[in-house]
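Hi R.,

Here's the chain you asked about this morning:
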Amino acid sequence: MLDDFLIRAALAGLGLALATGPLGSFVVWRRMAYFGDATAHASILGVALALASDLPVGLGTLAVALAMAVTVAGLAARGWALDTTLGVLAHSALAFGLVAVSFVPEARTDLSAYLFGDILAVSRADLGFIWGGAALVLALLYWRWNAMLTATLSEDLAAASGLNPDRERLVLVLALAVTVAVALKVVGALLIAAMLVIPAAAARGLVRSPEAMAALAALIGAAAVVGGLRLSLSLDTPAGPSIVTVAACIFVLAACLGQMRKQ
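And here is the predicted structure, written out as tokens:
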């Protein structure tokens, strides 16, 4: 019989996989992997602000992640180079966050949990927050799926179809911000981008349609969660990094399988 904390950990990871699978597909298509890093790094500042003001950590990280998302979307709409903008904001946000955390005594002792995740300590309240955030992300993607696909394929085509590419980009970065806030407890700030990118990248060479890629990415993420938790329990390794390690192994297998199919 599984312990209650293991069931909560598995459910938390599966909720995260449902969101990161389809969302990570857009990250891969748009080559926005660095955005996940930038928003995740900014979430550390949200942790410090939340602890300093006695607010829930999830609320603080969500607020800062949303602020980062809106800032990036606004600068990109004004023609700023996205890679340079994210590079500056990612490292600046992480530095500000770590400096701010140093002024909060209770955050210093538990900083590794925010950096690398602590999925085994997920509570029922955390579980509700994770699944609520995942449901919101999936609802946003379902609502704007065709429009976001068109804008991803070609912004000129989207504009000609009566769509606003800047609005679709904003919806995407807002969904990413929510996912980062949800994932902080599971895999931590330094590993969030891996869960967004690796399952989607593994699925990319195995399918022929965007919808199939999103679904397979979610399944790969779920498999990584289950396999990573099993690895963590068997070898007494950190749960968050173990999940990402399993995801990386699946990516290697998928890449080899994709090469074999081409031959």
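One quick note: Residues 124-153 form the longest helix (30 residues).

Cheers,
M.
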